[in-house]
Design brief:
The protein is α/β, with parallel strands linked by helices. 18% of the residues lie in helices and 28% in strands.
């Protein structure tokens, strides 16, 4: 989107008016505080910009005024100057005379320390000095008491968090540079670790952010859940000379503001949001989990949680938390979590059931994969965990609920006896989607362009085209899905497994990284496999029409090809083969198989008639390799063509009937277990 020139001229005129009269313009949408409700009225968006840069005044202020809205500027006082630099740079500091004009026009001025020092690197006394100098200097220049704070570099830890919390009379909020959705349910959110999404150009187009479309998807979720989204940047300019990546362009801001207002979201400052968080009543949705003892003995469940806010979990019903997998250390019924990093506990549930409840919006990662047969199972509806970025659930758990609104989700790994459901269409940030078991996911995958791994089996009903999913490295689709599209552009694929009711098409000729191909059902993939020299697995049946010579696939271990495919090539050099079954229209051949020492299974039934010499050569070779260690209880040779007894000169006489007679290892180590059939 390009900036509308009429709008650009308008906001320049408004800028002049604001400087002259110290007033904001009146527009259709003003950044007003909505009336108190259970959550926020319409959903809220906050824009803030760090470091107190002059482009926030020159470019950002008139742009926002043209829409009748405001932003928060976090100022580091050491960067402010007493007169403008020469020449002008959008990355230079504000001028002291500009700051009170911004404040008078309704723009929020917050603290960013005096010297932009990471607080984790200095003592508590030095933190007090930095914050006090910052606050006092701003007040001395006509700014209202700056209650809002932003951590320099987003750097904080448990010590800094405790300090900010203990000194809350001097600050109302503290913003980091990490996280995504926050203040999701109003005033109860941890105000000393507010996260946000960076919209500077260096981060905006990242996989995590997803560009303007990714921000718009977050706004959709904010509207749905009446929550809050914080967007932050630094310079506001299209000029990135010498400062690539730390600027937000006016074009981007124009697009985001228009989209937010089209969704009727309230765009407010941090000062306004603080009032909303304090005044609005808050009912926090929660999720209750039930632990049920299974099997015999006191099984132990593994639980890993990462959160975006501090809270406490309390177990009821007799279960206990432990810090070690053996269930012996630090026994407790409570578990305190801080928003620093992932936390792990082990839960012993001796008998019956126990429960625990968590605040739904504070969970951003949950991992529980119980492989032990007597581990307690975990159940509960997890639909409200809308801020999840990672969800890994397996084992004997029976969790339920819809994932349709988990728009922050990046990794989903679900197996076992869980019964999750919901459409995946809006989960545009997902890179890893692995679903087995009793889940019933639905929706189109066409927009999930960040996916690198897609495995969906079972009763799911995914649809949509994979044509644009060019980042895929692993694709495995079976069951009731009806996915379509061409794989031709998925050149990063290393494994391709398409079965069931899907209708995937396209040529594999350019997929040179493939190590495995499994294709059956109603798919119609085509192309030559000659360039897929890394293949170890080739299992192609059904309506596919794969062609090309397999002679160069020297890593091939398993080949099963039937149907309408037309493979060619001599397999003599494929010395790693242990299973080779070719039927239908294929014309594979072999000059000798004397080196195929790993071969356990040979089924060749093609349009080419083999001579008795060919057959007896094969039989002789298998007999010569009879002492190789095999684990299978049955081995098969099945060859089409005319067959007679005997073997070529120099091979000796091999009696087919005698070869078939060996079905038991007597004496041990000498039997061959071959079942030999011939058709001709």
């Amino acid at each position: 989107m390009q900036i509308n020139m009429k709008r650009y001229i308008l906001y320049l005129l408004l800028f002049v008016c604001a400087i002259s009269f110290g007033q904001t313009s009146k527009s259709v949408r003003i950044g007003t505080i909505p009336a108190p409700t259970n959550y926020f009225k319409n959903g809220v968006v906050v824009f803030s910009f760090d470091d107190g840069l002059v482009s926030q005044y020159v470019t950002g202020m008139p742009l926002f005024q043209s829409y009748g809205i405001h932003f928060t500027s976090y100022v580091k006082c050491s960067g402010v100057v007493y007169k403008g630099g020469n020449p002008y740079s959008p990355y230079g500091g504000l001028i002291w005379s500009q700051i009170p004009l911004m404040s008078a026009a309704g723009f929020d001025i917050g603290c960013h320390t005096y010297n932009h020092v990471p607080l984790i690197t200095i003592t508590d006394d030095s933190i007090v000095k930095e914050l006090t100098m910052n606050k006092d200097t701003l007040i001395a220049h006509g700014v209202p008491y700056p209650y809002q704070f932003c951590y320099p570099g987003g750097s904080w830890n448990a010590r800094v968090w405790r300090f900010m919390h203990s000194d809350s009379s001097n600050r109302k909020t503290a913003r980091t540079v990490a996280g995504d959705f926050w203040a999701s349910w109003g005033r109860d959110y941890d105000k000393w670790a507010l996260g946000g999404v960076e919209i500077d150009s260096g981060n905006l187009e990242s996989t995590w952010t997803g560009g303007v479309a990714g921000i718009e998807a977050r706004m959709d979720s904010v509207k749905l859940h009446k929550s809050c989204l914080h967007l932050f940047g630094h310079a506001i300019t299209a000029d990135h000379t010498g400062y690539v990546g730390i600027h937000t362009t006016p074009t981007t801001l124009d697009a985001l503001i228009q989209y937010a207002q089209s969704k009727d979201l309230d765009i407010v400052t941090m000062r306004q949001l603080t009032s909303m968080m304090q005044s609005e009543p808050t009912t926090i949705p929660s999720t209750t989990f039930t632990l049920t003892a299974t099997g015999t003995g006191a099984g132990i469940a593994y639980l890993n949680i990462n959160c975006n806010d501090a809270f406490r979990i309390t177990l009821t019903g007799g279960a206990k938390f432990y810090t070690d997998a053996a269930g012996t250390l630090n026994e407790s019924t409570v578990w305190d979590l801080l928003p620093i990093s992932g936390h792990t506990r082990y839960i012993r549930c001796a008998s019956g059931t126990s429960t625990f409840t968590i605040p739904s919006e504070k969970i951003i990662e949950i991992n529980n994969w119980n492989s032990s047969t007597n581990a307690p199972s975990l159940s509960g509806d997890i639909s409200n965990l809308i801020n999840l970025t990672i969800c890994t659930i397996g084992g004997n758990n029976t969790l339920s609920g819809s994932i349709a609104n988990w728009t922050s989700l990046v990794t989903l790994n679900i197996a076992g006896t869980n019964t999750l459901s919901g459409s995946v269409a809006r989960l545009v940030k997902m890179t890893f989607f692995y679903a087995k078991g009793s889940n019933t996911f639905s929706g189109s995958i066409a927009g999930l362009t960040q996916l690198t791994t897609l495995l969906c089996w079972g009763s799911n009903t995914l649809s949509g085209s994979i044509t644009g999913l060019t980042k895929l490295t692993y694709l495995s689709i079976a069951g009731s899905n009806t996915i379509s599209g061409s794989i031709a552009g998925c050149t990063l694929l290393t494994y391709l497994d398409i079965e069931g009711n899907n209708s995937i098409s396209g040529s594999i000729a350019g997929l040179t990284l493939l190590t495995g191909i499994v294709a059956s059902g109603t798919n119609t993939i085509s192309g030559s496999i000659a360039g897929c020299t890394l293949l170890t697995l080739l299992n192609v049946t059904g309506n596919n029409s794969i062609s090309g010579s397999i002679a160069g696939l020297v890593h091939l271990l398993y080949a099963n090809v039937t149907g309408t495919n037309s493979l060619t090539g001599d397999i003599s050099a494929l010395t790693l083969l242990y299973h080779f079954s070719v039927q239908g229209s294929n014309t594979c051949s072999f000059s000798t198989v004397i080196n195929l020492h790993s071969l356990d299974y040979l089924n060749v039934y093609t349009t080419v008639t083999l001579t008795s010499d060919n057959v007896n050569q094969l039989l002789a070779d298998f007999w010569a390799n009879r002492d190789y260690a095999k684990t299978e209880s049955t081995r098969l040779i099945s060859i089409a063509g005319s067959v007679t007894s005997g073997a070529p000169t120099g091979q000796g006489i091999i009696d087919k009937a005698a070869l078939q007679a060996y079905h038991s290892p007597t004496p041990p180590g000498t039997a061959v277990f071959w079942t030999v059939t011939t058709r001709g």
